[in-house]
Amino acid sequence: MSEKERLKLFVKSTNLSENAFCLRCNLPRTFISSMKNSFGNDKLNKIVEQFPDLNTIWLRMGEGQMLKSQNKCDTCNNEVSDCIINIDYKEKYFEVLERYYNIREENDKLKRIINSTMK
Q1: Is 32 within 8 Å of 8 (Cβ atoms)?
Q2: CA–CA separation, 59 vs 65, rounded Å?
Q3: Contacts 24+ apart (CB under 8 A), 109-115
Q4: How far apart are CA 115 and CA 119, in angstroms?
Q5: What is the pLDDT of residue 46?
Q6: Which one of 1, 6, 30, 59 has the minimum C-beta count within 10 Å?
Q7: In Å, how far from its chain's centre is CA 17?
Q8: What is the CATH number of the domain that holds 45?
Q9: Is residue 83 pLDDT above 60, yes or no?
Q10: Is residue 85 located within the same domain as residue 38?
Q11: Which residues pair with 54 in a beta bridge?
């Protein structure tokens, strides 16, 4: 999907006509219909001024969600990518903690065996 197609999809999601969208963003009325596949940063800045929730990475490259608010974690309101990293660390922490307790238990058993053989 091209930038133009993603922009059209975004415009549709705003429930505005292309003309109304362009007027709101202070762009020529024919901006969308006459654009090739992409557009300059000056135009992007005008759009983002009016629609700050628009995810520019999605618009430019098609990665992530259309809206920034859709990239937020429901639990902590951080970026989803940050939460995934935190979840990985949390899972690793619990894995290490479980290994620690298993080793500690095994160590206690070995101490008891040693103590019983020394008597």
Answers
A1: yes
A2: 9
A3: none
A4: 7
A5: 94
A6: 1
A7: 28
A8: 1.10.260
A9: no
A10: no
A11: 67
Same-domain check for residues 59 and 87: no
Confidence band for 47, pLDDT divided at 50, 70 and 90: very high
Residue labelled with tokens 């053989």: 117
44, two tokens: 């992007």
Interatomic CA distance for residues 86 and 92, integer angstroms: 10
Helical (H) or strand (E) element with 65: none
Q: How far apart are CA 38 and CA 55, in angstroms?
A: 15
Cα–Cα–Cα angle for 34, 36, 42, rounded to 5 degrees:
85
24 with 65, same domain: the answer is: yes
Q: Is the pTM of this model over 0.70?
A: no
Contacts of 70 (CB under 8 A, 6+ apart): 55
Position 81 pLDDT exceeds 60 = no
Both tokens assigned to 33: 């219909």
51 and 88 inside one domain = no
- Cα→Cα distances 51→25, 71, 80, Å: 9, 16, 21
pLDDT at position 5 is 92
